[in-house]
Design a protein that fits this description.
heterodimer, A: rod-shaped, B: mainly alpha, Rna Polymerase Sigma Factor, Chain: A, Arc Repressor Mutant, subunit A
């Protein structure tokens, strides 16, 4: 009820209201490529957002690869230099360094592809 | 392709990041937003840049649109905020220019706006404060209700009404418009 009264009150216009309305009214502005320009910007933004995380992971991976390999090598050497009776079961089951790196790369590629497919 | 109501388009944009649906929303409302910003800033090209920024912000914030008010009201709220922020930035820029001694450049930037073609509406708008101008444009140019303006400006409905009344009074006294009350 109150809102109806408010709406009615808003509809009651004096001459000045009508004059102002006619003064403020202006012809619609033609689009002329305005909307497609913004849509292009939005698509570019979306694309950048989608590519940023995988790219950052990839670059980070590249940067981290060398220290990780060195770390794994070090760990491997430590394990090999330990007396055999301390790690009797590890020697046969430890994967080779090449296998670890290949596995990590395959995992990364699979995760990246899945992410791209999902998008 | 037949598009639905605004809120359906918004739902498509939010749920599927559908840029075509967003494009349709822009096509529907760009004229109102650009007109609003042109009247507010008095500078056509600056207003169109602001309108672009406004729609980019709208894209980022679309998930916050609750659907309770009109979409154009929500858009104009973003447009008004974008305008105020840009004004603050350019004011700060002018201050910095003045501080470093580039007064002439700061003055010339102001002059571009002032030298634009002045019509009757510009004269009307010139007597209003920035807040009054924004609210009067929302009301008389964009046809927003007092409630929609209140949501867009985050002011109580009563304050919106008094700003409109004050604006009308300023125009009436400045341009000697006779009041013929009807109804």
């Amino acid at each position: 009820m109150t809102s109806k009264i408010i709406n009615m009150a808003e509809r009651i216009k004096d001459e000045q209201d009508r004059l102002l309305e006619s003064m403020f009214q202006s012809a619609p502005i033609a689009d002329n490529g305005f909307s497609s320009q913004i849509v292009r910007r939005v698509r570019r933004k979306l694309w950048i957002r989608r590519i940023t995380l995988p790219l950052a992971v990839f670059l980070g991976g590249l940067v981290a690869l060398q220290p990780i390999v060195a770390l794994l090598k070090g760990l491997y050497q430590v394990l090999l230099s330990m007396p055999g009776n301390l790690v009797p079961s590890l020697e046969g089951s430890l994967p080779s360094l090449q296998l670890v790196v290949t596995g990590a790369l395959v995992l990364f590629v699979v995760m990246f592809s899945l992410n791209m497919l999902e998008d | 392709m037949a598009w639905g109501e605004d809120h359906e388009l918004v739902a498509r944009v939010v749920s599927a990041q559908d840029t075509n649906a967003f494009g349709e929303l822009i096509r529907r409302h760009q004229s109102h937003v650009r007109n609003f910003l042109r009247k507010l800033s008095g500078d056509m090209s600056a207003a169109d840049d602001l309108a672009q920024d406004c729609f980019m912000r709208a894209w980022d914030k679309l998930h916050t649109y609750s659907g309770s008010g009109s979409f154009i009201g929500w858009l104009l709220k973003i447009a008004y905020t974008t305008f105020l922020q840009s004004k603050r930035k350019s004011k700060r820029y002018a201050e910095i220019l003045e501080q470093v001694g580039h007064v002439s450049e700061a003055e010339s930037r102001t002059h571009v706006v002032q030298s634009d073609e002045v019509n009757d509406l510009d004269k009307f708008l010139a007597v209003l404060s920035e807040e009054e101008r924004a609210i009067m444009v929302m009301s008389y140019a964009c046809g927003l209700s007092h409630r929609e303006i209140s949501e867009a400006t985050e002011m109580p409905v009563g304050s919106v009404k008094s700003v409109i009344f004050r604006g009308k009074e300023k125009i009436r006294t400045s341009f000697d418009i006779k009041d013929h009350q009807h109804g």
